[in-house]
Amino acid sequence: MADATPDWIDIGGIDDIPARGARTVRTGGKPVAVFRTADDEIFALIDRCPHRGGPLSEGIVSGKSVACPLHNWVIDLDGGQARAPDVGCAPAIAVKLVDRRIFLAADAFAEAPGPTAAERGQTA
Ligand code: FES
Q: Sign of the CA dihedral 17, 20, 21, 26?
């Protein structure tokens, strides 16, 4: 059985992110926005608003949420769900803080999978 425990990658110190701010991290897949709250909590979401793809990393962090800079949807940092009445989700990335260093789940850095043989129109 595969080990379900993710490996972690150090992406920098918490002090590299301003309080109530964010930075983006380039991964093999989509860019990830890493947020720091006023209470020094860290959250990571795919940097794409569930409304029309706005850059959440450029939004305003308030408490444990971020307001998208394009149309002001409010997204919960803890899980990525849009607050009602809006509906949608920015996928959350596992993140942890150890001794003021930020670690992202290594899964976030995996290359996006390519098309399957069936999707390429190939047969076995
Ligand atoms: S793109 Fe984020 S609120 Fe519209």
A: positive
